[in-house]
Amino acid sequence: MSSLQSMTPSHLQNLIQEELESNEKFMKTFRSKILTNETIEIKSSWFSEQLKNSLINGQDKRKVTEALTKAIEFLYGSKWGFKQLKKIKTVGIKIEFDGKLLETIVTDEQIQTYRKEKFEDNEDDTGFAISWLTKEWYIETHHIISKIEIYENICNELKTYGVRQKDIPRKSEIMKQIDYVFKIPNVFSLICKIAYEMGKSNESVLFSSDQIDEISWYLKGKLHARRIMFGRTITDMLYLWNGKCFRHEIRNGLIENEIENIVFQATKHVRIEIQTKLLAIAEIVDESEISSYLHIQCLKNGYYDMKNFEYIEEINPDETFVTQELPIKYDPKAKCPNLAQYVVNAIAEPIQRIGVWEMMAWCVDNGLNLNKAFFLVGVSAQNGKSTFLKWVEYLLGEWNCGHVPLELMDTDRFACAGLINKKANLFADIKNGMIKNNKTFLMIVTRDRVYVQFKGKDPFYLLPECVNIFSVNKPPEFEETGDQTYRRIYPIDFINKFKENPTKEELEDGIKKIDFELVDNMFTEKEKSGVFNVLIACAKRLRKQRRFSHAPIEEEVREYWENATDHLLDFSKKFLIEKKGCYILSDDMKDTYENQYCKNRRIPPLGERKFIHEFPMSCIFNTKYGKVSTTDGRHCWKDIWWNYKQPPGNLMMQDELPITKEGQAKVRCKECIDKNHDNCLDRDRCLCSKEGHGSDNNYKRAS
Fold first, then answer.
1. What pLDDT is stored for residue 252 in this prediction?
2. Of the candidates 274, 158, 561, the residue with the CA atom closest to the CA atom of residue 150
3. What is the DSSP string of 205-226?
4. Residue 194 and residue 188: Cα distance in Å, rounded?
5. What is the pLDDT of residue 700?
């Protein structure tokens, strides 16, 4: 068991501080008693046996008094500021230990007497005076740790206590003595602790450029520096508190701004040293700390808890680790009519509109694991995909969005590092073609650990938390086409087309005019606040269901994906059936393909030569392109016929029409059925009796 004699004053002080701080009953009344100048009662029974025996049985009562006094001072200063402590100390702090009032040395009069005695005893030793002033007066008593401030005060103190001007050492000699004191081990540890507490209480201070350790500890306290550990790898990623949340230091500039304010004449070399030291002493936290606070959304005017669905004004950086800040102002009364109208204009299916709102809610509350990747599919340009993606980035903030293309996730080992601490991964217009390896993509979607690396740094395993949203004209083909792929895909169709000045014919065909005013009103702060209120309601539903309300199952996605990646295959499924001995004229096939299928889907049709080349490979039936017969030189597609459930063009098949001996039947056009003969588009082959209608050109139909 250590005795009091074997303990240094600073060691004894630290033990007292730790055990008093853990006493909740004492800490509750501690501050109020100091502020009202009441006696602070301390009992030996509060301490551990070792410390209790040291305090009671120790012979040096002055050491006990000094340790208790400084422990009380430091506890108060670290929690409520050392500036306020200086004012309180001029009045005095009364401490009672086991019923006995201690004769403290904290009043100005007592300390002045003590200091005078020290100088009179050592009037010929100026070096001792400087050392004593630095250690016991400035550092231990007043917690002054700036060498600049200590030097200025020492010069004044030496004059005050009769040291002649010619006997005052030069600045270099005084600084040498101060440096010596700062290197004493127990003083150095105390200085670092004081610097850390001063940083936490945000006290202003000016350090000299050689105080690298003190500056680093001050910044650690003020910026709550934390270093992230991914798996078992401690990275160089430093997260700092910016007053609202923790932000990654890369291009953040927090350290640079603080160094400008607290360091005198900091060179580039000094700045690098400070950042290196701060990284070394920063608190190490696991990446799971980030995940555990993803439900707390940092907003412009406070915080919103997506788990308990309540607004929070402030959070304690020592107790939370919020790393994502949204550029949204919380306003529970705000609405979002403009974005709601835009979604209605751009997305035809009501079920998919719900999916889009739930997708945005997941981007905000990205702590949920819903295992989906969104593909915004629009086969033509100007259908609203890009504008919508820009709005999602506007909602989340560009710093919360990554932009990693799907095709690079498996091929570029540095690409996935761009997904660290992102709410969403947005990429517009990923390239067409085959994705040969999509394993990393699936791992990111299901939030399994993926192998990532920064250039010039050690690799590590990342647990991604982002929502993946891609826009495509034509969905990519996956080499791996199992259920595990299609189970993770959520397609959203943007089939409507917009133009700045559409013609009358284009408007009749369903093309819409771009509403620039609507788009401009979407990108406003008020609109974001209204959208956030809607997303809160969607997040409640998602958290309750643990799934999307109308997500398609893998069989539906597989069929959709196969048809979307090969539209000729989709065309053959919807418009054709296999019938041996039948044929469709090439001109009729081209007319139906262009004017019905492509026009309705608003996609550009293939050219005639490309269609002839690719259609046999994509069609689900065996068909050949050739001439009708040796005597009929017209070209046709053989062994296929129209699907009656999906009549081609503007033709309507009539089962009751007479069949010729060659097995041919004539057809009636829809316009003629409606007796609107002027609009008949198939006069050469309809059965209407009107002049100019009807001819010998007949369709061959199946028996």
1. 58
2. 158
3. --EETT-HHHHHHHHHHHHT-E
4. 10
5. 33
